[in-house]
Design goal:
Helix content is about 25%, strand content about 35%. With about 180 residues, it is α/β, with parallel strands linked by helices.
Amino acid sequence: MRLCEPPLIPAGTIQKHVAELAAAIDRDGNGRDLVLMAVLKGAMYFAADLSRQLKTPHRLEFCRARSYSGNESTGEVHILVWPETNLAGQRVLLVEDILDTGRTTAVILNRLKEEGASETRVCALLNKPSRRVIPIPEDYVGRTIGNQFVVGYGLDYEERYRGLGAIHVLEEDGCA
Ligand code: IMP
Ligand code: MG
């Protein structure tokens, strides 16, 4: 595996996307309270930056689901971590690193609806629409990318590369 240079999305550009997303969320929310539900582990960095840019009053919650082994989707999604707090009647913004097949998002959205969230929206830094298997809402998306495997800014390959400040393509053979 090779980490391609230059980065697909440099650190400064990521922060511009975060600021734009925060502004759009603030605009739509009209000051109403929000629950930011970050999907661990990948969305940790994004959620932390988004939280600091948002003017909307919000609390931060975490959930964790797993659908991947290596870079192939296994197709099955299990929820491993879920907030203990009551989500009934809450406006919830699901914060994801990347929308891929849509399976993780669909499972988490279902659970949020079961628990009575009054509104659910999806915010993802990255979107890979060409990989979608299940249709999901794309309320706030930072950037659409092709069918590439990317790492950095929270995104991993077998738990590596999360701490990179920029987002890079990871290639098996050679970089373009
Ligand atoms: P989905 O359920 O197929 O949409 O998978 C979503 C999850 O798969 C994301 O939250 C990521 O953790 C992981 N994932 C999908 N694409 C990539 C990628 O390009 N790099 C790293 N992780 C990815
Ligand atoms: Mg992963």
